[in-house]
Amino acid sequence: HASDAPPSCVECASAPSASWLCLSCVTERCGRYDSAHALSHFEKAQHPVVFDRATGECHCYACGDFVFGPDIVKLQKAVADFGADGDGGADGAENGGGEGGGPDGNGAAAAVAGAGGRRPP
């Protein structure tokens, strides 16, 4: 089953401690605590937002902080549905899932909040 394989970095093909999915071009790269390919990809391609499928965390390199909000909740649900469907769950990404509202409960656009002790990618 292809989704059971651990994520690997497209640059070095390693299975890093944290693999970050670029939300602009949908490629996985290792974080700064491995070989920092996700950070170098941002610096070269200017694709600022990455997502960790294992933790559901989303980080913006442009502002240097973690991202929260209803769109991130939808993304987390789509990723969870992707693994649960057994067939890849492509419909989860299209439908978005979730009901939005985010942490502030008002459905505002994704907001950036303090990292709260998290390590950036």
Question: Quick gist of this model?
Answer:
This protein has 121 residues and is of the alpha+beta class. The chain contains 3 helices and 6 strands.
Model description:
By secondary structure, this protein is α+β, with helices and mostly antiparallel strands. 26% of the residues lie in helices and 18% in strands. It contains three helices and six strands; from the N terminus they run ββαβββααβ. Strands 2-1-3-4-5-6 form a six-stranded antiparallel β-sheet. β1 and β2 form a beta hairpin. The relative contact order is 0.16.
Which terms summarize this structure?
six-stranded antiparallel sheet, 121 residues, 6 strands, alpha+beta
